[in-house]
């Protein structure tokens, strides 16, 4: 991750009165101007998320397309893509690439954001976000109770499946090619991993 990926807003917009890094709240986040940037709030630290690449966007759309067919169209739940705010605590709000909320968790969908842990979070990683997705976000999602976390790497065309067990993730496996991710959340998932990368 580059330094600009994690710069607090205080370094980006000094014309605004901003809290010290680590002291941001949801109210501070909501007071940010709509400047077209994508921000996340992790334990009171405001982070600027880099714009997605074309490969990132293409992969995100394909995965969302298959999840819509499997989850949303049959009425099993809802599928959301970034930017969507997910509130995981008083000082934590993230914008995962893809979020799945099953019908049994529908109460977590509020008019402004998702409040509480989604059933499935998918992050499409890149060289600039890999350590962030695999460390900070992994720990954050586990602590919040996100049941399943997929780390998708468009460069290597792999999906790492992490399943929650007692507030920690157990790495199931890294899937590629014709292998099918054995999701516990997306029951009956039968889409080959390669298909999610366009081939």
Task: Please describe the topology of this protein.
Blueprint: H1 26-30, E1 38-42, E2 45-49, H2 54-72, E3 77-81, E4 86-89, E5 92-94, E6 98-102, E7 114-115, E8 120-125, H3 130-134, H4 136-144, E9 148-153, E10 158-165, E11 168-175
Question: Could you describe the 3D structure shown?
Answer:
With 199 residues, this protein is α+β, with helices and mostly antiparallel strands. It has two domains: 3-49, no CATH class; 54-197, Alpha-Beta Complex (tt1808, chain A). The protein has four helices and eleven strands; from the N terminus they run H-E-E-H-E-E-E-E-E-E-H-H-E-E-E. The strands form three sheets. The chain has a six-stranded mixed β-sheet with strand order 3-6-8-9-10-11. It has a three-stranded mixed β-sheet with strand order 5-4-7, with no helix packed on it. The longest helix is centred in the first third of the chain and has 19 residues, at 54-72. 34% of the residues are buried.
